[in-house]
Structure prediction request, 420 residues.
Amino acid sequence: MDYLEIEGGAKLSGEVEIAGAKNAALPLLAMSILCKGDIKICNLPPVHDIKTMLLLLENLGASYSYDEDCATINTDKLDKTEAKYDIVRKMRASILTLGPLLARFGHCEVSLPGGCAIGQRPIDLHLKALELMGAQIEIKQGYVHASAPDGLKGATIIFDKVTVTGTENIVMAAALAKGETKIINAAKEPEVVQLCEILNDHGILIKGIGSDELIIHGRDRALLQIPEITVIPDRIEAGSYLCAGAITNSTLTLNRVNHSHLISIILKLQEMGYNFDLHEESITIKPSPKITPIQIATTEYPGFPTDMQAQFMALALMADGTSIIEERLFENRFMHVSELSRMGAKISLNNSIATVEGNAQLFGADVMATDLRASFALVLAALVAEGTTRVHRIYHLDRGYDRMEVKLAKLGAKIKRLSE
Ligand code: UD1
Prediction:
């Protein structure tokens, strides 16, 4: 198994290219199930989750070719409707095939994803919404068996909680349903917006895009034709590199970003004292003479993203005072705290609230990545720790960060990928 070895203390400088957004690409790959003919999806990040989704589509009978950062997918011969446990357990986002498969074939069998390191993560809201659209759902032997032999029908859905993949699943199901579907309390994340915009540009009228109320006019199982699309930049990868600049107090430029997706992250960094130069598709972070402590509560977009909580916790360790970080979305998303503590961090936890003592003297240690974003937080801490840190279980990182050690090394970090 691979691990990362990082020597702390190096300043960073230079430019880094931000990849396409994993969380935007995954629903777009699932959307290929709604299409006929070839669909070319560009700016795909070369990360494991994307390969897993392509493998899942292939297992279902789709064909694809992958070249540079584009995949061309054809689902004309897709003839299986079972998303198997072996794939779903590797990547929860496989659940995104549920809505499209059911809408196109009138039935499907998708393995239940189960819990994960950051919490229980149920899919009850996805299932309840599909039932309102006329699906019959049964859970048998760990699988969701969904059927709607006469097709899905438009319905009014009120999500009890804002759910990103839940909204995406229902938008895709509604695209091929009969009649109009209204989603109230829809997610507004840029990844949801991109999916809606693409559908809207290719024959599915969607009103309210970017708001929490969507109205989708279904096409009653008439498949779509979408020749080519490009995935939006990854706001979480961008935010993570901004934190790398911030924690090492370096000047870094990120290229191929969309700042409008980064507002809550930039505002928090400005509160901490960092300055920025914004250009059309790039952003430069500049050092802060004094790092001010922060208060953060994670919430749905446009609020502060839970996917940046761990990285900001690492950064808060360098602040001049005590920061408070509240995790409101996932009950168990503080697994990185005990690993950061092994490096000398002083963080106390009270349910969903972490109190982070600044001015930390971190030292290198062997630490274990617990989930995708937590892995980056450990790398950030390692960049400023005294001595050598080895981050193990980096398969978590490989799920979602594009060649992270290569990008950081190019910026001047002393980081190597090694095998156990
Ligand atoms: C997506 C992102 C993930 C991000 C999360 C929150 C993808 C592939 N993943 O995950 O990176 O951390 O949004 O921004 O886009 N919930 C229920 N029942 C459901 C569905 C969700 O109770 O049926 C709860 C969850 O447990 C959680 C909250 O709703 O507390 C939000 O989860 P959700 O937005 O669904 O997360 P994902 O879509 O899985």
The chain is about 30% helix and 25% strand.
